[in-house]
What we know:
Blueprint: H1 3-6, H2 21-36, H3 41-61, H4 65-108, H5 112-128
Amino acid sequence: MNNQANLGALGANDWRLVVTAQARTQNLQNITANITQSLSPQHRASVMKVMVQCEAHAFASSQSSQEYLAMLRERVAELEQSLKALASSSHAASAMAAGVNNQQQQQQQPGAANVSVLNSAQLAQQAQNPA
């Protein structure tokens, strides 16, 4: 995040002139710390890669430091929502997979559960076809 490369056309009063690369990195780390704590290292790296791109865009396009920080917070909130949605859908998928596994295990195990299923099926068949 080299400020000098991005500041060629900026005026002397531009707010970006006083923001160091170290400060930008620190801002990014502080803002994303909460959402990256619970992620795996691979996912944490992916989130940070996305946030570095978002930070660069916010830094280049913001008219003030307040707008810059607000844009970063907004992107983090959006990312947090996406991660929550992803986590809940993966939990739902895991629960469905666990349900399928349990059902398969019950079908493979001989015993009372299978007998009651067979008895219910036999009763239904007898009800449809009385002798």
